[in-house]
Write a structure and sequence with these properties.
Number of strands: 0
Structural class: mainly alpha
Radius of gyration: 15 Å
Strand content: under 5%
Number of helices: 4
Largest sheet: none
Low-confidence stretches: none
Helix content: over 70%
Number of domains: 1
């Protein structure tokens, strides 16, 4: 994947799915049915994916020379379970702007 924005989009969507699984499935399993292993597994996967997402965002900010406001918007969207899905249309447009890769 040569376009760093495409990788960022993909990483953001996968990270969002892991966040939804963590909040919607793993946490109820832990706190309602006393099964903490689900949070350990899904939480670790989500944490790793979030770090990869942050690295991908930093790469896009440097390589594509995105303004700080755009990077902050994408980062803030990742803090909410459905945020990356809501911002994906804009990110598609930003991906199309990227002609150098």
């Amino acid at each position: 994947m040569r376009n760093p924005v495409r990788f960022l989009r993909l990483t953001g969507l996968i990270e969002a799915v892991s966040f939804i699984l963590l909040v919607g499935i793993a946490m109820p399993l832990k706190y309602i049915w006393h099964m903490p292993l689900a949070v350990k597994i899904v939480g670790m996967a989500h944490g790793i994916l979030f770090v990869v997402f942050c690295g991908a965002l930093a790469r896009v900010m440097l390589v594509s020379k995105w303004p700080l406001s755009r990077g902050a918007l994408v980062f803030l969207a990742a803090l909410f379970p459905f945020g990356p899905f809501l911002i994906d249309r804009r990110m598609k447009a930003w991906e199309a702007e990227e002609h150098r890769f």
